UniProtKB/TrEMBL annotation:
Record's keyword terms, sorted: Iron, Metal-binding, Signal
Protein name: ABC transporter, solute-binding protein
InterPro entries tied to this protein: Ferric-bd (IPR026045)
Source organism phylogeny: Bacteria, Pseudomonadati, Pseudomonadota, Alphaproteobacteria, Acetobacterales
The UniProt record lists the keyword Metal-binding: yes
Highest taxon of the lineage: Bacteria
Length: 343
């Protein structure tokens, strides 16, 4: 039922695009660190609407940045696309992106989700959540990431390695808010509260809640959302069983930590006008819906529809994305996590 809503909307997007038979509308080359089939369908929709062919070169973000640098003025790259704010900041620092004027992008994407220099913007976002067992009820005194270090949660928390960018990015955000000393005490407190040594991916953390192995899990929103979208009864049962806490929502608090997928115009883009057209296309409600919900992420534009499973998880206020700050503090955050034994 939920699934059908999205598929219907997605088909409408693909089918409703007018067939364009322009022979010389040209092409664009996307250098993308994302690997989702739904992204490809979206690029096809762009081609149908504009006649512009889309070629995708996939790779890891840092390798793509290096490749664009090495190719220099001869690079075919028009648009760089990746996940993780710190990696977008790294691309900006590496000098491979260029600013451009677009009232469409500026008007549709909130300023908090755009680079202050206009070098990139977010296409979608995901929140880092605390999850619990609804059958046991929402734990008292657990409203902030900082609360995870409280001794009352001894032996309850499951999380993946601190070396994974999702946790390092979260720790960098705590570090920017609380400073080094408090962050180290926090990391030691979380490690003292672990139910088991860090292992597996985000899904493995909340999947271990029903058996009682883990009482609390730290995981990204879209992983749970994917269970909410699934047609399988057992996935639906797990989705209903897991409760979510959007941390740091109190008045004056900084908001829930989010990370983003985003992209920008490559400085040496040979197909600059087409590339800007593509970036603007990504802000349309239909593209937003298809791109974000392909992976069950949150769209960034206000009028893009939200999947019912995501809506059911609740509304929240996000911490403003500070990509450059996060990139800056990531090495220190990683050191702190490692000293604390969050391996
Ligand atoms: Fe992921």
């Amino acid at each position: 039922m939920l699934r059908r809503t999205v598929l219907a909307a997605f088909s409408a997007l693909v089918l409703a695009a007018p067939a364009v038979h322009a022979q010389n509308a040209g092409e664009i080359n996307l250098y993308s660190a994302r690997h989702y089939d739904t992204d490809r369908q979206l690029y096809d929709a762009f081609t149908q609407e504009t006649g512009i062919r889309v070629r995708v070169i996939e790779g890891q973000a840092d390798q793509l940045i290096e490749r664009i640098r090495n190719e220099g003025a001869n690079s075919p790259a028009d648009v760089f696309l990746t996940v993780d704010a710190a990696r977008l900041a790294r691309a900006a620092q590496a000098g491979i992106l260029a600013p451009y004027q677009s009232q469409t992008v500026d008007g549709r994407v909130p300023a908090a989700l755009r680079d202050p220099q206009g070098l990139w913007f977010a296409f979608s976002q995901r929140a880092r959540l605390i999850m619990y067992d609804r059958e046991k009820g929402r734990p008292e005194g657990l409203n902030r990431y900082e609360d995870l270090a409280d001794p009352r949660f001894r032996g309850m928390i499951c999380t993946r390695s601190g070396a994974h960018p999702y946790n390092t990015s979260l720790a960098a955000s705590v570090l920017m808010a609380d400073g080094a000393e408090k962050t180290e005490a926090w990391a030691r407190g979380v490690v003292a509260n672990l139910a088991r040594p860090p292992q597996g991916g985000d899904r493995d953390q909340f999947r271990a809640i029903p058996s009682g192995q883990c009482s609390l899990a730290i995981a990204n929103s879209y992983y749970l959302g994917q269970f909410g979208r699934s047609d399988k009864p057992e996935d639906q049962a797990l989705f209903r069983r897991i409760g979510v806490i959007f941390p740091n929502q109190g008045e004056g608090d900084r908001g829930t930590h989010v990370n983003i997928s985003g992209g920008g115009l490559v400085r040496t883009a040979p197909n600059r006008a087409n590339a800007i057209r593509f970036l603007e296309f990504m802000t349309t409600p239909k593209a937003q819906e298809a791109f974000a919900l392909g992976n069950m992420e949150y769209p960034v534009v206000e009028d893009a529809p939200l999947h019912p499973a995501l809506a059911a998880m609740g509304k929240f206020r996000a911490e403003p994305v500070n990509a450059a700050g996060n990139l800056d503090r990531t090495p220190e955050a990683l050191q702190i996590l490692q000293r604390a034994g969050w391996n």
